[in-house]
Amino acid sequence: MYKYVLFDLDGTLTDSKEGIIKSVAYALEQMGESTEGRLDQHTIVGPPLLTTFEDVYGFSPEKARQTYAYFQERYSTIGKFENRAFDGIVPMLKAMKEAGIRSFVATSKPQVHAEAICQKFGIDPYVEAIAGPAVGGTDTKADVMRRILAGLGPVEKGDAVMVGDRRFDIIGAHELGLPVIYVTYGYGDEAERKAFQPDYTAATVGDLKQLLLQA
């Protein structure tokens, strides 16, 4: 049984696609850009949006930052609460805490939004820390995870695991030598899973709970 579990937020603990997609649509419209073909959840939910705006949409760094500013206009007030915890997540976190497993959130979402979401949807009482970048920040997933691990002191091999739904979770965890549980109920897809090879997969929250609690 793992002592420390680092969770991604979007697509792992919460179903956040509605607020993110609507807020990206708003940002594109404000920029005078078409939304057609640009709102697929596999593309925009999970990865850092500045990266998506530059690498997928082909925007210049300046245009990407302006688009992100428009995204934040809507997301910071409305979009972040167009969201819900996946069924079974809060009871699973509660059971983990009761079993002595320490849970954390490591997200690419700005930390201020992640904190508000975890409080709103009942996750906050069961996680010890929530780490994410500043608004507009460029921290990688590995950077965020590293901050959590640094607060734990020496972590023995096999004591910690990352749980996520996108390649960035796998890449970041493996960079730090952590195993990864990839949740296929999230926003990734089979091609991404095969390409980046997580250590374990969980198709449902029930499967994830079984892996983490060995029950």
UniProtKB/TrEMBL annotation:
SUPFAM superfamilies documented for this protein: HAD-like
Domain of life: Bacteria
InterPro entries to which the protein is assigned, alphabetical: HAD-like_hydrolase_sf (IPR050155), HAD-like_sf (IPR036412), HAD_2 (IPR041492), HAD_sf (IPR023214), PGP-like_dom2 (IPR023198)
Protein name: HAD hydrolase-like protein
Source organism (scientific name): Megasphaera intestinihominis
Source species taxonomy: Bacteria, Bacillati, Bacillota, Negativicutes, Veillonellales
